[in-house]
Amino acid sequence: MYKNLIDGQWLAGPASSANLNPSDTRDCIGQYAQADAAQARAAIAAATAAAPAWGLSTPQQRFELLDAVGHEILARKAELGDLLAREEGKTLAEAIGEVARAGQIFKFFAGEALRPAGELLPSVRPGVGVEITREPVGVVGLITPWNFPLAIPAWKVAPALAHGNAVVLKPADLVPGSAWALADILHRAGLPPGVFNLVMGRGAVVGQALLHDERVNAISFTGSVGTGRQVAQACAARMARCQLEMGGKNPFIVLDDVDLALAVNCAVNSGFFSTGQRCTASSRVIVTEGIHDRFVAAMVERMRGLKVGDARKPGTDIGPVVDARQLEQDLAYIDIGRQEGATLAAGGQALACNEDGAPGHYLQPALFTDTTPGMRINREEIFGPVVSVQRAKSYEDALALANDTPFGLAAGIATSSLKHATHFKRHAQAGMVMVNLPTAGVDYHVPFGGRKGSSLGPREQGRHAAEFYTTVKTGYTLA
Ligand code: NAD
């Protein structure tokens, strides 16, 4: 039984849930505690008590702690990557990459603890000095999704602690193992009791307790648009600070002048790797007429060679879908695409088991062609390995199609034209733009986030994380 960490103590919950391997549903990773609202409130109380002293800890203390956490994560990346692949279903290589990223994030924010920024200015009034400083926000509630079980908790917890806040982390129910491992590392690194609390449990119980508790000064949420809306409403009602990272329907434009192999590599990577379960995945590929048919033929050919199988088996390109519910949703959208008149050019079949006979949630990646912008498969986030291709008359037409979406997280273009690449970077309505690169795959030291329906509030990661995890104070002194 893996327990919750509250006020420096490991506590069992009133219930527990089994963490199952989506590559082989007979494999149970462990039983993880499920907290009730009272346990969530106990964690908030512990964080509230611990926040003032942690807020006054020295930059050196915070640096050493976060650096040690980053060091341990990196040293154990093979083992933690195996756990991550086993509980979430991304391939071992992808999982180890995610763990390494989490370690690097802790190292980066260890450095940020040593670099608190301030400004000293002359006043507009004679004899007065002005200083601008940043202080911790206090207690932050962090609510994370299942698709990056370690990296997303890391990119919220590390800046929160670096900037002197106390934390209550509520990870996704489907993947508590990686978050538990992170809590264990933080605990053993010597954080004072209550500074970091792990409360595993259901969103409707633990998540709601965090949203509605006056003692939680700020909520950082990553997840679906529907839940994000509830988070924003709850925070607005009690004037709490909030940061939302939500869904995407990210476009990837392929222009006539492109190197075809590069375009196919980018589209396959962004559409299908990590089983398409990335908020930055490109599920809409917009292709100009001169290369459309050659591009589709090359995609179909490349997809034939993709091996779907056990996430931890060498040679697997695409692991299983995370659970039965998500698989059902993916298959429902594949049906919707067919009914809307799109052509299923490749894939789309569920496989009950892998080549070794292990039962899992397997899906052959799907490519739709002959799609139009109004189709639901082009408007709604599916969150699976399902990509649709749209035909565009020109670059200008492709850009208009790319921006025709309620989302705005990432957008990509494959082209050899500097003119079009430059224009696209300026005019794509997205928080992140990629030229001749997959839309998924980002650096850990720069801001991450989107616009329109994808994000709300300040950016995550890099130096910009301070915007959310600190509050600004302006001091005036008569000299
Ligand atoms: P989700 O919204 O179902 O759950 C996210 C978290 O919110 C979970 O911890 C869940 O338990 C909790 N939650 C659920 N209901 C709640 C409630 N009523 N009150 C409080 N908390 C509640 O999302 P998911 O299915 O775990 O994740 C997939 C979604 O996350 C996709 O839409 C994806 O695009 C998005 N995502 C976005 C980013 C980004 O940075 N933009 C990154 C990864 C995933």
Description:
The chain has two domains: 268 residues, Aldehyde Dehydrogenase, Chain A, domain 1 (3-Layer(aba) Sandwich), CATH 3.40.605.10; 186 residues, Aldehyde Dehydrogenase, Chain A, domain 2. The protein is α/β, with parallel strands linked by helices. Helix content is 39%, strand content 25%. The chain has a seven-stranded mixed β-sheet, sandwiched between helices. A six-stranded mixed β-sheet has the order 9-8-7-10-11-21, sandwiched between helices. Strands 5-6-22 form a three-stranded antiparallel β-sheet. The site of nicotinamide-adenine-dinucleotide (NAD) has 28 residues, from helix 7 and helix 8. Nicotinamide-adenine-dinucleotide binds next to helix 7 and helix 8.
Topology (SSEs and partners):
Elements: E1 4-6, E2 9-11, E3 15-21, E4 24-34, H1 37-55, H2 59-75, H3 77-88, H4 92-113, E5 119-122, E6 128-136, E7 139-143, H5 151-162, E8 166-170, H6 176-188, E9 196-198, H7 203-211, E10 218-222, H8 225-237, E11 241-245, E12 250-254, H9 260-272, E13 282-288, H10 289-304, H11 324-339, E14 343-346, E15 350-353, E16 359-363, E17 366-371, H12 376-379, E18 386-392, H13 395-403, E19 410-414, H14 418-427, E20 432-435, E21 455-456, H15 466-469, E22 470-478
Parallel strand pairs: 7-8, 7-10, 8-9, 10-11, 12-13, 12-19, 13-18, 17-18, 19-20
Antiparallel strand pairs: 1-2, 3-4, 5-6, 6-22, 11-21, 14-17, 15-16
Helix pairs in contact: 1-7, 2-4, 3-4, 3-6, 4-5, 9-10
